[in-house]
Write a structure and sequence with these properties.
The protein is α+β, with helices and mostly antiparallel strands and about 60 residues long. The chain has two helices and four strands, in the order αβββαβ.
Length: about 60
């Protein structure tokens, strides 16, 4: 069935940025530069705050 989507109707879409448990381990031990604005929020928390709380080494904003 070419051309048909395999997504379930009504399935919740979770943006990649909200799945921090998947990408934070990839940043461990690395220097992180953040290019964002004030709308870079995950839930009610800004991405910078999330990274700093996780102990990431943010070296540039």
């Amino acid at each position: 069935m070419l051309g048909q989507s395999t997504l379930a109707i009504g399935a919740a879409v979770i943006p990649r940025d909200a799945r921090s448990e998947e990408y934070l381990p990839l940043l461990a031990g690395k220097r992180v530069a953040l290019f964002c604005n004030h709308t870079a929020k995950i839930g009610e928390e800004h991405l910078l705050d999330l990274l700093l709380k996780d102990g990431q080494q943010v070296t540039a904003i």
